[in-house]
Amino acid sequence: MLAISVQLMINAKTDAQSEDRTVTIMQIHHVQLAMPAGKETDARQFYAQALGLDEVGKPANLAKRGGCWFEQGSVRVHLGIDPEFHPAKKAHPAFIVNDLGVMRERLKQEGYTIKDDAPLAGFTRAFVYDPFGNRIELMETAL
Fold it and tell me: How many CB atoms lie within 10 A of CB 128?
């Protein structure tokens, strides 16, 4: 009896998996970056003051975890506390800006080092590292 029940469950799972259904990823809701505990002020200085994103409140059930969230239009960046934090030096978000030159100057005035990178088809690019060492790419549509 047990063997029959197990076989029926396996067959049901197989039949459900064989249904032809298309699923499409529609868009990215947010990018999550890690940060060390207790450094929210540094995050605000970089993401809000230097990059110009607006800080938004975290839901009460998540606020107790620390970190902070930033938005501007459809761009959402969540910084979460990682007790074993290691910066993302290769993996990174790429933000499209309307004026890379102005952004470059603003970051330099705030004390950040920005490095130009080779153009990517249709874009000029630069990189900066947030206060925690996470790599951030900045892109402007090439004319």
Answer: 22
